[in-house]
Design brief:
The complex is a heterodimer of chains A (120) and B (112). By secondary structure, chain A is mostly beta strands. Chain A has strands spanning 5-7, 10-13, 19-24, 31-37, 44-50, 53-57, 65-68, 75-79, 88-95, 110-111, 115-119. In chain A, the strands form 2 sheets. In chain A, strands 2, 4, 5, 6, 9, 10 and 11 form a 7-stranded mixed β-sheet that branches. Chain A has a 4-stranded antiparallel β-sheet with strand order 1-3-8-7, with no helix packed on it. Chain A is globular and about 45 Å long. Chain A starts with a strand and ends with a strand. Chain B has 112 residues and is an all-beta fold. In chain B, the strands form 2 sheets. In chain B, strands 2, 4, 5, 9, 10 and 11 form a 6-stranded mixed β-sheet that branches. The model of chain B has no long low-confidence stretch (mean pLDDT 93). Classes of the chains: A mainly beta (120), B mainly beta (112). The A-B interface holds A 4, 31, 33, 35, 40-45, 48, 50, 55-56, 91, 93, 95, 103-114 and B 4, 6, 8, 31-32, 34, 41-46, 49, 51-52, 88, 90, 94, 96-105.
Amino acid sequence: DTGVSQNPRHKITKRGQNVTFRCDPISEHNRLYWYRQTLGQGPEFLTYFQNEAQLEKSRLLSDRFSAERPKGSFSTLEIQRTEQGDSAMYLCASSHPRTGGPSSSYNEQFFGPGTRLTVL
Amino acid sequence: QKEVEQDPGPLSVPEGAIVSLNCTYSNSAFQYFMWYRQYSRKGPELLMYTYSSGNKEDGRFTAQVDKSSKYISLFIRDSQPSDSATYLCASSGNTGGFKTIFGAGTRLFVKA
């Protein structure tokens, strides 16, 4: 399978514990995005990388959240001192930037299956 | 106010019906308007997108964008039970890495 992969698929943790998720993008995709999705809501943007550079962070990404993408390949999202409000699906997506072509061309983001986090 | 507003439904229709899904958005800088489909326990997958105003058709699916009223629509003709899913409208500009803003999603049930 050459799609976006995420691990683990499910994580149950106790409040106050740290958790780390991993995302492996489609190879050759140099943009990588993290989103959070709660029940009954659409995905909310958290942050994105172009290669190894983290170019934008949402205000949703509190100090307890940190994302890295060493070497511009896989990415990790760490949540420290988890809270019950962190329970959600964490989605990763990747895209390949448009090089040339019309401005009407959209860079499709390909999503992984997500990591479902439950904080007890 | 959310940047992309979408009625979460649920919407239940009989097989073969025409389905109309709608969203509104508030950010005039948005230029790309997407519809994603999400099945239970899966990540969203892009169904189709429209650049600026206009219509786009792909098989049984038609997307419409009216930038003057900031209105986004998706029509599904001859709906099938396999169309049962959550449909997410989304928008982005052409800067910031195409950061995408999603609506809440509309849950669609197509009954055989």
